[in-house]
User: What shape does this take?
Amino acid sequence: MKILNLKYIAITALLMSFSLGAMAQEDDVSPQRKQAIDSLALEKVRDLSKYISIIGDKETAYSEANRVMDRAEELFAPDSEMGVSSLTTEEVEYYKVRKYFERLMALNYDNVKISWYDIHYISDLEKQPDGKYVGVVTVYQRFEGTSDDGLNYKDTTKKDITIYVEKKKTQISGRTIEFWDVMLGDIRVTETSS
Assistant: This one.
């Protein structure tokens, strides 16, 4: 996981370098910054995919799963929710991020395999009245759960992930530096199929 930290630091440094030459009152995202922001957003989504796979894996030790849950929560804006669906019901249930991870870890299967694919933007970043930008990334999640007693469940879920981008400030060597930060928001289920 230290590699992931270094990745975020490197990408954040890249975003900061784009911000160094910008005037403080500039709130628009330049094409170069937008490309860096898009890369960071997709990287965070891919990392979330890895975290979910680790948390759901029955071979993962409890202490490691908790550590990974902490890391995964850091990707999200406060109060974000994740949707859960099933082929057996049309209802989609939403849980706070930590609760979702805890439920995932407690699934009653002997073997769980979760993979995400076809990750891409479906809406461009749009500026909101509060100065933040919002976009949507879509992913497909393949879930497979099996038990030693023959229980077998598989589904594919299309999910839309809200992406929040906002300008933040940090201190580096006594200077205030502005940079664009990316946070994941609600994950909405849009389709579930076998």
